[in-house]
Amino acid sequence: MPGLELPPPPPGGYEWPVPVENSRQMAAMVISSVNIVVPTLLVGLRIFAKWRSEKSFDRSDVCIFMALIINYGLQVNSMLLVTHGGLGISLAESVSRFGFQPAIFLYKAYVSHNVLWNCATVCSKLSVLLLYTNLIPVRSMILPAGAMMTFVVMSHASYIIAQFLICQPSRKAWDPFIPGHCGDITTVYIVAGITNIVADVVILVLPMPFIYSLTLERMKKAILAGMFAVGFLTSGISIYRQTRLPEINIVETTSVSLMIIVLTALEPAVAVTLACIPYLRPLTHRRSHARSPSDYETPYMPRKPETGGGRASPWRNRASSAARFRGLVDGPGPSHFDSSQVELQLVKVESDPSTVMSSRQEDGGLAGTKRTVDGMVAGQ
Fold first, then answer.
1. Is 278 helix (H, G, I), strand (E, B) or coil?
2. 377: closest CA among 337, 335, 319?
3. Average pLDDT of 80-96?
4. What is the protein's major site of localization (predicted)?
5. Any bridge partners for residue 298, and if so which?
6. What are the DSSP calls for 144-186, one per residue?
7. Which domain holds residue 135?
8. With bands split at pLDDT 50, 70 and 90, how would you rate the model's confidence at 370?
9. Mean pLDDT value of segment 209-216
10. Which of 6, 137, 188, 364 has its CA 20 to 30 A from that of 300?
11. How far apart are CA 113 and CA 94, in angstroms?
12. Under DSSP, is residue 309 helix (H, G, I), strand (E, B) or coil?
């Protein structure tokens, strides 16, 4: 490996195990532990909220569970980088004290770290996008959300493939001591980081026009928007990590490399945590009295009289087929959560009768569904 010579073993042999002996290593271990505990707590609260509100689990929940499991692997990998790979100790010192096996483990763990980060990022983003399509099952949301899902999966899959093709032979990606050569892996990381930030921003902005169009008080709109906008915290971590990537050095494994590893592991943990926040508001409120369904309706569009003669009104059909926000956590009954159960009807109004959906379409799919948002805004 350029710039690194293998010294002879020291008298008495190499040291083992690799000690956690400096503040950087200790900080990495603590942060990884927190990255396990906090997302687990939030996902547990999400499950509890859905169970209490008698809501069934959907694809968004499956994706967030997968992201949580992969996050476990990512955090354990971060710890192993310290305890078995000597991360936080310079590579030259690590080889002289512990031999080259920890160094090989270090680079293997680098590769697995990148794979786990990509997988966790994909699952967390898919969870949010599937949440959007559940809440706003209209064409103007489903199509861009589907396009973003495709982009996220394809882009991160390409970064994983690049991780294994950047070196010739491929084994040199995790064994720097064998003959061969590698391309500029830092450039791959930078491109992946930039596209990840762009995807984050697009995903976070996607529901805002729908929220803005709701017939709600400004404060309640702000609360709804804030529940989704907290994801910008993940983007902040990504941007800071991106600014440090050009400083990474394949031989220097102390401050910069350790910080990038910690930030890379922190990002999916925060994403999983924040993806659960929209589900949790009903847990902070209890109903003081039962409300009638009419108390919960906040229509997106003005009501129009239905036409006679057995023909479905364009207003009625478009309102029903364009769907409403599905309740994230519908209250299980009057004795449980108090929240502003707001039935939010989201639809683009078209006056052209030619756009009216047929009654067959209305009876299937999304038509006629009654959706409520339970506890997403403060009590009315």
1. helix
2. 337
3. 86
4. membrane
5. 344
6. HHHHHHHHHHHHHHHHHHHHHHSEESGGGGT-TTSS-EE--HH
7. 23-279
8. very low
9. 79
10. 364
11. 20
12. coil
* Pairing verdict, β 343-344 and 297-298: parallel
Return the number of other C-beta atoms located less than 10 Å from residue 380's C-beta.
Answer: 14
CA angle 231, 220, 343 (to 5 degrees): 100
What are the tens digits of pLDDT across the range 164-174? 898 888 888 88
Beta pairing class for 167-168 and 181-182: antiparallel
**Domain for residue 83, yes or no?**
yes
143: which residues sit within 8 A by CB, 6+ positions away? none
Q: Which two tokens stand for residue 33?
A: 């532990």
Number of domains the chain is built from: 1
The answer to whether position 8 is within a domain reads: no
The pLDDT of residue 244: 82
pLDDT band at residue 53 under the 50/70/90 scheme: confident
DSSP-derived letter for residue 288 is: S
**E strands, the chain, in order:** 167-168, 181-182, 297-298, 343-344
* Residues in the chain, total: 380
In a domain, 313, yes or no: no
Euclidean distance between CA atoms 325 and 132, whole angstroms: 9
Q: Band the pLDDT of 95: cuts 50, 70, 90.
A: confident
The tokens for 360 are 């067959």
Residue 155 falls within a domain, yes or no? yes
Residue 120 predicted with pLDDT over 60: yes
Q: Judge residue 354's burial from the number of C-beta atoms within 10 Å of its C-beta, 0-12 exposed, 13-18 middle, 19 or more buried.
A: exposed
- Could you give the CA distance from residue 12 to residue 22 in angstroms, rounded to a whole number? 24
Q: What is the pTM of this model?
A: 0.74
pLDDT at 42: 95
Is residue 104 classed exposed, middle or buried when 0-12, 13-18 and 19+ CB atoms within 10 A define those classes?
A: middle
Torsion of CA 262, 65, 189, 150, to 10 degrees: -160
The CATH number of the domain holding residue 212 is 1.20.1070
Q: What is the mean pLDDT of residues 266-284?
A: 86
Close Cβ partners of 317 (under 8 Å, ≥ 6 residues apart): 356, 357, 362, 367
